[in-house]
């Protein structure tokens, strides 16, 4: 049953934004991982504060032998697969873990860039897309929901 306040349309719109952000973040992450700091990244200058090559080849750019950009691409791809693979109750539970890992990755990336003294434009775009993907997620909805019979249920149920 459709909600009177247009909630279904808003949820579909938020999901489209989330899917778009995750697809683009996955592609950028795979591109940056393929560059690996050995090559000049297209569209990113190599002088001054903005230097993708320095960020992608710095000491914090690889975690457990895997480039940080590839971790981001895997996180985004997982976000694309979760809704289709899991039932709603598990999606919310695992979604929290997914979101915490994403925020942890962002904090790691920002710390790495601050300590390195350089900023990667493509990394910043990817980080913005990760935030854009996490915001419309239904795991952030704390508001109680009503079923068609008027009963109130906690968010995520």
From TrEMBL:
InterPro entries: VKOR, VKOR_sf. It is found in: Membrane. The chain crosses the membrane at residues 21-42, 62-82, 94-111, 117-136. Belongs to the VKOR family. One of its GO terms (cellular component) is membrane. It holds the Pfam family VKOR. It comes from Sulfobacillus benefaciens. Keywords: Disulfide bond, Membrane, Oxidoreductase, Quinone, Redox-active center, Transmembrane, Transmembrane helix. It is a multi-pass membrane protein. GO terms for molecular function: oxidoreductase activity; quinone binding. Residues 9-141 form the Vitamin K epoxide reductase domain. This is Vitamin K epoxide reductase domain-containing protein.
